[in-house]
Design goal:
alpha+beta, GIY-YIG endonuclease, Nucleotidyltransferase, domain 5, eight-stranded mixed sheet, six-stranded mixed sheet, extended
Length: about 625
């Protein structure tokens, strides 16, 4: 800790505010908010980590050389300022919405005599009404297309004032009944404004109010014998009711809530947001976030709620989240201030809400899987990842074939190893291998790695490429082991023993996502947003998944072994015969030898051996 940093920490006030941590280059590495700046910021340099502290921040404390802070009058103000600063500086160690500068909104230009409805990515205080943010442009287009089918409105940008004819003749949209023609004075300002009010109600999710208003208007038109207008209104009502029927959620009748589901994978997170108003699902969007693997779910959720509702135009009475949040009180204060009325966080425990939360979580998980599949299918990104990895490790060229190894056991029992293979940045599942550890007793990760590597590289050495076996066990361009310096040193011993002195080798440590190389003390730290880091994390996670699946299979088989399994001469058929007669191994053990020998297929000699074996 530098003297300047010590002086700053001593002067921290016991008041709410926002703090920025900077490194030696002046870059902001973390932004946080606090009820008490003094206690919160100082806690990062304390030996004992407070309950709920963000552990990954402690891993970068040695990089922090300066702390700046801004005082606020309340925690609610601090939350709003924190969201703004995260958006501005995009710190590496904060959870943040991806592309958060460009989320689209639906805009209604209320200041115009004849308002337009358009898509925008900027919030401007110009008297317009905004709906959103939406997760993508396609989400906005879907909503606008639905509104356009139900309510005609103008999309042109020409200046139209009440009482002034702007054009001599209307455009095509007027003729196909997608615009009311204010440019040719085919509709008054009041009539057009009433239509815009219905659109606002529809976008708010208050479709029932729209239906009631249209029904009343239809009855008036019918009484005036304006049957064509009444028929048009009837068709519009039916269209809205069909939309409502497909979105209706009876369990949430007269409920105003948002439901947030979360899924995590590597350094990515996905949030599925369901917006429910008056029992109708009016929006379902998925938002992607950059979130460090070590960040707890509670922090990811809190960060999303803060950044999303800091810009949201509609905040509901209730927001459902999948787990309790430690800063729920501060968030509720912030949400209530933004809404202008009470807004509460809750965790659904049972019933329809719990089921809907499970659905949201599944949807978020599927979105993450699609994103990763899209990334893996992108040839450009995989090539960039391989080139970045080659540059970081000092390899002569991109490692087209990478093998990654992991060990899995529980206190040394059922110890197994896994080998996964990526070629051109993509998994080659047909070449995955798994190893049951034979020579190592107890939980010895180093020796287990050595056994796996020794057995693997005896299969193929330089010069064996012409053999059929060598084709299946081709030599890799890079070997990665799950672990740090110790695992790398153990792996290097085996490679040297087998004459593979020049085989590129690295170890990926989980705690800080650092790459260790043999004989080099300083680790390689890949940028958090680099494609190379994502690739090696995928490799490590795949190796871990493959190893732990095999380990669980072995443990399950061991735990379900029968007392007959170790008896010579007793196979599946004789075991079934014994169980059919006696029902259990215990009753076989208690039965006399003569009774056991009477079972079909069991003679006197085998019955004696069974009796003796079960009594051991």
């Amino acid at each position: 800790m530098t003297p300047d940093l010590q002086a700053t920490l001593k002067k921290l006030p016991d008041r709410p505010g926002v703090y920025l941590m900077r490194d030696a280059r002046g870059d902001v590495v973390y932004v946080g908010k606090a009820q008490s700046l003094r206690s919160r910021v100082r806690s990062y340099w304390q030996k004992a980590t407070p309950v709920g502290e963000v552990h990954r921040i402690r891993s970068v404390i040695d990089r922090v050389v300066d702390v700046e802070y801004t005082l606020t009058d309340s925690v609610s103000e601090a939350l709003l300022l924190e969201a703004s600063l995260i958006k501005r500086f995009r710190p590496r160690f904060n959870v943040r919405l991806k592309d958060d500068k460009s989320y689209p909104y639906i805009k209604i230009t209320k200041s115009d005599d004849f308002p337009r409805i358009e898509r925008t990515r900027k919030l401007v205080e110009d008297g317009s009404r905004y709906f959103g943010p939406y997760a993508s442009a396609s989400s906005v287009d879907e909503s606008m297309n639905l509104v356009r089918r139900l309510f005609p409105f103008r999309t042109c940008t020409i200046e139209i004032e009440e009482g002034k004819r702007a054009l001599a003749r209307p455009c095509l949209l007027y003729h196909i009944k997608r615009c009311q023609g204010p440019c040719i004075e085919a509709v008054s300002k009041d009539e057009y404004g009433a239509q815009i009010s219905q659109i606002e109600l529809f976008l708010e999710g208050r479709q029932e109010s729209v239906v009631q208003a249209l029904t009343a208007e239809m009855k008036v038109a019918a009484e005036k014998t304006e049957y064509e207008k009444a028929g048009t209104l009837r068709d519009k009502i039916r269209s809205i009711e069909r939309t409502m029927e497909s979105q209706k959620m009876a369990a949430f009748k007269r409920t105003e809530l948002d439901l947030v589901g979360l899924a995590r994978q590597d350094n990515q997170a996905a949030i599925q947001l369901f917006a429910i108003r008056s029992g109708t699902l009016i929006g379902r969007d998925v938002f992607l976030l950059d979130a460090a693997r070590e960040a707890p779910d509670e922090e990811v959720l809190s960060s999303f709620l803060l950044q999303y509702y800091a810009r949201a135009t509609s905040i509901p009475h209730q927001i459902l989240v999948p787990c309790p949040l430690p800063d729920a009180g501060d968030l509720e204060t912030f949400l209530t201030a933004r809404r202008g009325g009470p807004s509460r966080l809750a965790v659904p425990q049972r019933g329809e809400k719990r089921e809907l939360m499970a659905l949201a979580t599944r949807n978020a998980g599927e979105t993450l899987a699609r994103e990763q599949a899209r990334w893996m299918a992108d040839e450009g990104k995989t090539l960039i990842a391989l080139e970045q990895l080659a540059e970081a490790l000092g390899l002569p060229g991109p490692p087209l074939r990478i093998e990654c190894y992991d060990i899995s056991n529980v206190q040394g029992s059922d110890s197994v190893g896994s080998m996964v293979v990526f070629e051109d940045g993509k998994p080659r599942t047909g070449e995955y291998r798994r190893f049951k550890i034979r020579t190592v007793e107890g939980p010895n990760d180093f020796a287990s790695h050595q056994e796996v590597l020794r057995r693997r590289f005896r299969r193929a050495k330089d010069g064996d490429e012409g053999a059929a076996e060598a084709l299946r066990w081709a030599m890799p361009d890079l070997v990665i082991v799950d672990g740090g310096k110790g695992q790398v040193s153990a792996a290097k011993e085996v490679l040297d023993e087998l004459g593979l002195h020049d085989m590129p080798l690295a170890g990926l440590a989980k705690e800080r996502e650092e790459l260790f190389r043999p004989g080099i003390a300083e680790p390689v730290v890949l940028p958090a947003t680099s494609s190379a880091l994502y690739l090696v994390q995928r490799l490590r996670d795949e190796a871990h998944r493959f190893a732990i699946t095999y380990h669980r299979d072995l443990r399950s088989k061991r735990q379900t072994r029968s007392a007959f399994d170790d008896l010579a001469g007793v196979g599946p058929k004789r075991r079934r015969a014994l169980l059919r007669v006696f029902g259990s191994a215990k009753r076989v053990r208690e039965a006399p030898v003569q009774q056991i020998a009477a079972v079909p297929g069991i003679g006197a000699a085998l019955a004696a051996r069974i009796k003796a074996g079960l009594e051991v």
